[in-house]
Amino acid sequence: MLEAPRIGDLPSGALDSMADVAGVRVGHCTLAQGAVQTGVTVIRTHAQDPFLHKTPAGLAVINGFGKSAGLVQLQELGVLESPIALTNTFAVGTIATALTRAAVAANPEIGRQLPTVNPLVLECNDGYLNDLQAFAVAEAHYAQAYAACSPDFAQGAVGAGRGMSCFGLKGGIGSASRIASTRAGRFTLGALVLANFGRPDALILAGKCIGPVLAQRLQAGPPVAERGSIIMLLATDAPLDARQLRRLALRAGAGLARTGSDFGHGSGDIALAFSTAYTVPQLDAGPLHPQALLHESALDPLFAAAAQATEQAIVRALFAAETVLGHGGHVRTAIKDIAPDWRALMSHEVSTRICTV
């Protein structure tokens, strides 16, 4: 992986990834053959059965141009009851079925004596590099990604990120972490993004506008409307409820904006935050034990961590990616191949210009 510029002033966890939040694991299944350039990425929020031990979560739809599954119930109830799966647009139904089958296998009374499960699948459109009409993603690929879940996971053009584009370059999966110090203690926040958005001329790298130079090198032509999408996932060990987590998720948008996105009409920008500090039981065994939550006035350091970790994760998705040749002969070039001189570009006079975002 090409070394990426570091974002912000907050310290990172040991791995500088979402897996710095204890219990969180990530796995990929990558499909990379000819016109098929796609895959599945799975995030496990803890080691227990997610249906029986739900994870508190909050959702922020920054721009709702997307075809995900499970968001309505998540927004209403404020909990996750399945792993989080990322994939391409046409595979949402297949992966939702795979999540449902896995939940039923673990809990055979789902849909009978137990409630139905709400599988969460989030997507981006990888149709520039991947032949969506091949419908290449199968249920077995979810199982492979789930089985691969680990604290040590790849980034870049892997899993769901295999066919994704970002600022006209190769995008994909990126992750980072930041440590937030509050009056109540130190908490870890990890971000993971599926980056598939942005105009080439708009890229801002660590505060420096290198987009115009990249657009020239890519021969991108006149600026076009922003299309694509990004999924931004935040994990934290801070004790927050669903309402506070929704507020935290919204701050991922600050990190997104700092890279040069203006959340254009055709861009689906969705952020989700979850806490590993406690779980919510599926079964009614009486009143829930009260959970001591952070006071609202203690959230600012976590908001800053969310913005910095999200921006860093997007940058890492770019710098971890490789150049990919895909469907129809389309190519997305990795930033390491088109701008190995990125440090010089950041000190060049063009980087002092104001980017149009």
Automatic annotation (TrEMBL):
It comes from Rhodoferax ferrireducens. The keyword Ligase does not apply. Belongs to the peptidase S58 family. One of its GO terms (molecular function) is aminopeptidase activity. It holds the Pfam family Peptidase_S58. Gene3D superfamilies: L-amino peptidase D-ALA esterase/amidase (3.60.70.12). SUPFAM superfamilies: DmpA/ArgJ-like. Keywords: Aminopeptidase, Hydrolase, Protease. The keyword rRNA-binding does not apply. Its EC number is 3.4.11.19. InterPro entries: ArgJ-like_dom_sf (IPR016117), Peptidase_S58_DmpA (IPR005321). PANTHER family: BLR5678 PROTEIN, D-AMINOPEPTIDASE. It is an enzyme of class 3 (hydrolase). This is D-aminopeptidase. The lineage of its organism: Bacteria, Pseudomonadati, Pseudomonadota, Betaproteobacteria, Burkholderiales.
